[in-house]
């Protein structure tokens, strides 16, 4: 049962949420008019139906975004801690990336042939992440999907292991959850699914070594696809010793580990694995790598790169099911090179990590002063406010802490006070452009919102 607190009374939340919705509508008349106009030509009135998940009375339209600030159509400047749900983790419109992309587009954005940037990006990825061989895709979803094909071909096995509560983009194989009784079930929100994914995917609780060992003992596992920490169901950090023990189990059964670092890149310039000394067999980096352009990269260890190439050379000629026409496009490679050279560096991360710690400390102080039954998790430059007295240890515990009404109130109350959070949960991300004053503004806005809640 979720812990109670006088501030969190449902009637109090409902009354305050109604007032916040009215304030939002009053402040954004141009967004409201533009949103109504879009309904004539766009499904749900939006370019992507996920944009409904902000839970706003009507969509908020952005006129421009720079650094760690977004400017709305109605003239407000918002401190941005969503940062495109990680896609703009290094800030909006970083000058070096803008210049590199402009130069490349002027010389041709795509040709289905490599540019000189390709080898340079490969070498930079080697240096950052420690894996020797790389390929490119348009999204982390594609990169994960392609790696599953490569490793199933290389191992001759078909079963995939994932953790309950994981998120690996739109990879069909991953949409299997554990129900309340611990049984695998198809994710009920999945649209148009015609195959039962449980025949080739096994889902396990995170931080559960016994469950992992039992699954590996079946002998048919092609790979484990995992975020080093769960990030999309509410942040779930690995318990001390979990990953070293899991790595040993995987080695014993000769099962490769794919580390999806799309979100955990917030831990350092080489992601969580490099920062913590975990050795993946393959690795995915998406979203932030192109500073907003649709790109991703995936790497292999020497052993699995060789096995992948052997599998390809032994296959019949024709389409492999891996890659798209724009994979490795010239504009994307230019963006990745500029991001890796100027933003994904230890010096840049030092400031991001320091401000991440400042934010986490401030949130914990505020929770303590208010006596709220909440907790804070931090993954480098990423913080999460969680509605339970201790951070969750698996996906089920994270789901049990979630509160739709409280989340809707918190996001809207902060937006009305000039702070933007990611819509899906109370995640806050620090960019190189984020300033101490913006961190302090977020904390002040949360304090003010709680004052309003207390007065309701």
TrEMBL record:
Transport listed as a keyword: no
Pfam family, one: Aminotran_3
Keyword ATP-binding: no
Keywords: Aminotransferase, Pyridoxal phosphate, Transferase
Coiled-coil segments: none
Gene Ontology molecular function: any one: pyridoxal phosphate binding
InterPro entries: Aminotrans_3 (IPR005814), PyrdxlP-dep_Trfase (IPR015424), PyrdxlP-dep_Trfase_major (IPR015421), PyrdxlP-dep_Trfase_small (IPR015422)
Source superkingdom: Bacteria
Cofactor(s) this protein requires: pyridoxal 5'-phosphate
Similarity comment: family membership: Belongs to the class-III pyridoxal-phosphate-dependent aminotransferase family.
Protein name (database record): Aminotransferase class III-fold pyridoxal phosphate-dependent enzyme
């Amino acid at each position: 049962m979720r812990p109670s607190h006088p501030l969190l009374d449902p009637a109090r939340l409902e009354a305050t949420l109604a007032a916040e919705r009215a304030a939002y509508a009053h402040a954004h008349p141009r967004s409201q008019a533009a949103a109504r106009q879009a309904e004539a030509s766009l499904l749900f009135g939006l370019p992507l139906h996920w944009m409904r998940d902000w839970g706003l009375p009507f969509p908020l339209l952005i006129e421009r975004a720079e650094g760690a600030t977004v400017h709305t159509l109605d003239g407000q400047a918002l401190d941005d801690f969503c940062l495109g749900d990680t896609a703009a983790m290094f800030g909006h419109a970083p000058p070096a990336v803008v210049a590199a992309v402009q130069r490349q587009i002027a010389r041709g954005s795509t040709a289905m042939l490599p540019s000189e940037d390709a080898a340079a990006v490969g070498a930079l990825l080697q240096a950052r992440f420690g894996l020797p061989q790389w390929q490119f895709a348009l999204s982390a979803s594609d990169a994960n999907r392609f790696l599953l094909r490569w490793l199933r071909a290389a191992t001759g096995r078909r079963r995939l292991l994932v953790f309950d509560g994981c998120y690996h983009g739109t990879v069909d194989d991953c949409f299997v959850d554990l129900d309340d009784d611990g049984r695998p079930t198809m994710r009920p929100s999945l649209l148009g699914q015609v195959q039962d994914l449980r025949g080739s995917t096994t889902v396990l609780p995170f931080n559960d070594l016994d469950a992992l060992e039992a699954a590996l003992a079946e002998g048919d596992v092609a790979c484990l696809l995992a975020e080093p920490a769960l990030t999309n169901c509410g942040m779930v950090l690995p318990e001390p010793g979990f990953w070293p023990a899991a790595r040993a189990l995987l080695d014993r059964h000769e099962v490769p580990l794919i580390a999806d670092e799309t979100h955990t890149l917030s831990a350092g310039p080489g992601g969580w694995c490099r920062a913590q000394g975990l050795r993946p067999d393959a690795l995915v980096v998406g979203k932030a790598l192109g500073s907003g352009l649709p790109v991703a990269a995936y790497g292999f260890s020497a052993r699995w790169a060789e096995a992948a190439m052997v599998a390809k050379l032994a296959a019949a000629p024709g389409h492999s099911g891996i890659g798209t026409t724009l994979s490795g496009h010239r504009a994307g490679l230019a963006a990745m090179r500029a991001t890796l050279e100027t933003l994904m560096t230890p010096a840049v991360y030092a400031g991001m990590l320091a401000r991440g710690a400042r934010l986490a400390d401030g949130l914990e102080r505020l929770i303590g002063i208010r006596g709220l039954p909440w907790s804070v998790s931090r993954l480098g430059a990423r913080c999460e406010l969680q509605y339970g007295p201790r951070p969750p240890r698996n996906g089920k515990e994270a789901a049990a802490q979630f509160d739709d009404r409280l989340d809707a109130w918190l996001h809207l109350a902060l937006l009305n006070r000039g702070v933007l959070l990611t819509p899906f949960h109370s995640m806050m991300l620090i960019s190189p452009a984020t300033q101490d004053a913006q961190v302090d503004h977020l904390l002040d806005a949360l304090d003010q919102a709680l004052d309003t809640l207390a007065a309701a």
